[in-house]
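User: Batch of two.

Assistant: Item 1 of 2:
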Amino acid sequence: MFTEEEVTRVVKELPNDKAPGPDGLTGLFYKSAWEVIKPDIMNALHAFWSLDHRNFHAVNEAFMVLLKKKDHSTEICDYRPISLMHSFGKLITKCLANRLATVLGDLVRNNQSATAYGLWAEMEELDDYASVYGKHKDSPQRQARPEVPSESDLLSIKGALSIFGLASGLFSNLDKSMATPIHCSEEDMDRVQRILACKIVSFPCRYLGVPLSVHRLKRADEQALIDKVAARIPAWKGNLLNVAGRTELVKSTLSAIPVHTSIALCLSTWAIEMIDKLRRGFIWAGTDTVAGGKCKVAWLKVCRPKVLGGLGVTDLRKAGVALRVRWVWKDRLSGRAPASGEHAVLALFQAATLHRLGNGRSTLFWMDRWLNGSSLEREAPTAFAAVGRRRRRATVAKALPGNAWVRHIRGPASMQMLLDISRICDLLEEVQLSLEPDTFCWTPSPDQRYSSASAYGAMFFGSSTVFGAKFIWKTPAPPRVRFFYWLAMHNRCWTGDRRFRHGLQDSNLCIFCDQEPETLDHIILGCCFSREVWLICLSRVHINLDGYGGARAMEWWIGNRKLVPKFFRRGFDSFVLLIGWSLWKERNHRTFQAGATSPPRLAMLIKEEAERWCAAGNAHLSRLLARASA
């Protein structure tokens, strides 16, 4: 039987924001309502343990509920269906897994230790790297014509696989194995097939799901990845999710599919554009295609980090470069020259690493940053341009003794060349090698070790932040409200003034006051109607602020939040977003439905909505509203 203590422990370990579907019950729900739902959960677990399967079909069932989108709902489109999917099956598996973990050491023998978590992770990673990229440049296998395995080599491979099977119980099925020839003759392939008895498959082929080829991949080879992304676009969910929900689904699912392939291969521009087309269509329209007019913000801005004014959607080009830097990092960490020849990858590695000179055997003389945080490539660009491609990979230990680096420079001696050589001599004057090995660190990461996240962030170094972007995404508010303020920050909402400039309406006057152009700053803050709503709402929480008229909404918010006591500041941020969002909805209500709400009535609706936010868990806003009753 499952005990109440172990089930409670499993519930506490559930992630707060994870759910089996877009509308599923999250881990936070189970934790918050555990004392209420605990008897029902325990009864269901006991029924499962006692093999009582009479209601077991309910595990795959869910409740469908219709939520009203507006007060007066008359048509089916006025409701939003949600499916309250539960996580009962996950609770069962977690309980069983926790019990199995205590006896797993007695079930797995020592020669089957590959099943232990993390034990062989690094070895498998290096094996995958060698399989995808081939041997290192300094090894005999990277000659002009690779050495073909002899008969004794093939027999040794077959014997090693047999010994491994006898020791671990994991035998290789050679009938399902494949050999791919590289510069092999028919005689070589006959020998491989005769000894190993495996299939012969030519390039292009797939290894661990990655398409491999000795030539540039064709579009047909990359089409499978694009189809895989397109297959994960749920058309029916797109119509039920708002744009903020679709954005999160793109970030968590569609953007994650190409990661595995991008680690090993540089996707073509065509493949990235096709995947971006699918992601862009789902975000803005909920389908796999979208017209340009529906894209409210340029895609390059969408793919920027949130602090830089974007939505945090992965830029596949930059992410691919950041992921493939790992191979250069591992090569240099092992004291080898990098096997990758991708210019963007090498450039990112050089810019993000800082070398500390020791014996100079693993530091590149011309390209690495080992001279006071700079490289000779940067300090003497003319001299570096005259160095041959092979000489550029010379180490400090080989180039420094006897000024051997001078012989690396080829070409006519111009005045700038002589100045660069003089500059190099000055920089090398006090350089001394030691017996200690060279070390290098990854500067974008606090622990000075490579990570794909820090490498991706380094791709945006030098970009300027957008005013207010950080505060929008840190404010406790529903995603659709923060998404609206993100559009407002970029001035991409279809106000009357913008529609007038595009010739979509005859007048640009404000729908509230009919006196000034209807800009977004005017709707949220500058209009007399809006100012009255702000005064009523803020006076209830005992906040008195000035400067409504003529100020930009974002600047007014960021400037005045500093005047609010720190204890109530985040609640004030939520309240500001709620009031601005409510004013925008009132503007749409008047524009498209010819309705009208008075400022006191709108302030009362804002108060009711704020109470719903507090009931949903916004503790910061609850502190602020508590001042109204104080």
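Item 2 of 2:
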Amino acid sequence: MSQRLFIKHLFSCVAPQFKHGAAFLTYRRNQISHCISYFCTNINNFNKAVVPQQPVDLLMQNLRSASDTTDILYNIQQHHAIMNNAHIMQALQTVFQLQKSQQSTMSNGELLHSDSFQLLCKILQNKVRYIELNDHLTALKVLSFIGVPTNSKVIQILLQLVTKQVNDLTLQQIVFLDFILKDFISCPLVDALKIALPIVFEAHFRLQRDGCDIKQLAEFFVFAIKRRLSEKCIDSFVGIINENKNELDIESSKIIVRTLCEAKRTETPYRILLHQCLDTIVDNIHRFTFHDLNNILSRLASNKRTSSHFYHEEFLNVCANYVIDRQCDSEQATWILRNCNKFRHMHKRLLDYICERIAENPSCFDKWATGMIVTFINGLSISDYRPDNFHIYENCIADNLLKFTNKLELPWLRICLDLCVLDCWSHELCNIVLGQDFLGHFLKRGNLEDSSELIQLYQALVTLCPSYQGNLPSPNLIEELVTKVQNIEDSKDRSPLLPALAHGLGGPSYVYSQVYTKLGHFIDHAVVMRKGGYSVSINNNMEDDAKNSIFVENITLPEDSQIILIIYITPKCYTINTERIEGHVRLNMNTLEAMGYSVVHVMQGVWENLLDNEKIPYLMQALQNKCQNQEDIAATRT
């Protein structure tokens, strides 16, 4: 019963009561009571408006539920005459989803050349002026993904409409459109948009940035860096993200780290942001795969020459521990080690882990790529660490390296030098590398690093390996390289130890600075100490008065005295996290001692932490201790 019929029936029950007697009134009263009861029970149904049922949009349903692109094309072919804007956009979105997820039986090329898709593009072209700006961007995305040419009519119309509305774009739409345009070939409309988008973005960001979440801020920051927006704009994003650092999530952190690595920015706010993102990654390390971590670490390590700004000790440690805890294979372990080497970061557990796996199966080197072997011995050399089980497989290393001597692109001088650091003297390998033709290949590059490594290798073989009878660089070549290295060293800043040494020993005449050996060693300072630890004036005893050619061998020693060479160890000469002197530097000092000289080294980190009134006593004590040690050694020999 409808509400209208109910009310009519109610009044028909009430009206006749004035014409009849008491019995009839009782009857009517019962009828009214029944009607009121019925009304109370069905009142909700009465209140519902009777709405005519809307017709079902079967075309829309078919477009949404299509499981293959061919279904979409069939519906377009059959119903293109009745397709409206909503149908067009739904067809495009479903096609994009199916093609991107590779759930379609058609390739993008087949789709592009199909008549039905061409028909869809034509319908879009006719109705494009009546769809919204956001749908224009969606259509560009889909058509670009399918491979519709940039110079096609439908793309050009879409680009023209977007260009006219460019000032209405939100920051999110600007970033999205910029992403789409990267796949378009150059044309006037594309070029105009690429110029306009950064300008519009910078004009809008002050008004729209405050309501953005951290993910959006990360995307906007990437856009600002890649499109080289103004420093003020970029700094604003850095400041906002730093203020909301507690909201950083994994994905945003990954995006920001990648962008900062590409930008190579080293200012303090950028460094704070980078380390905050890496802290977030460290806290969520269990949610990363090995390849995610290695990718991030590789990006950081690619900037290691730019600044220590990109070094994050804890992140490197968790990457190394990740390999160990999950028992990754040797190849993955050496990938992490290679990036640790670039930072000069020592992780003893990682080195031991690789060594243990090798010791279990020394023949594994037969299956290792050359880069893995080079990375492994370089990691040991940087850390100046020869494992206890190294003797088990040291011959295997040298034998396997000999198989690859035809690969001239490898850093053979450094490889030989690393083996020398590990006390692994491969005469055969050194003989090949120091051959005239082989050596000429490296030196023709004019790389100063090659020259320095050759000098060090020569020093090591001559002083520490008297049994070596193979090829050596000619004396003329060594003299030429030493002169070249001297010119470089002379141009560097002088050691800061000189004032304290001169004051503590009795004056400048007791110290010589920037001294060399004829084998090519560079020494910061040389002093002469006689028995009892007393210093000797040496400036007037020099046989060579040329200030730029001071050789230790030319210093005349009084009776019962000895030369002490002082080397200032800068951070580039020791591991970044443990301040352990690198193997090459230790080998350099060993060769000096093998020539009969006493060596005292001073670490920059230690020196800079000393108070001014502590520096002179520190140096004098170091010299006294060295003198006493040498006297004790001489006494035991006699």
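Residues 3-8, 14-20, 541-547 have pLDDT under 50 and may be disordered.
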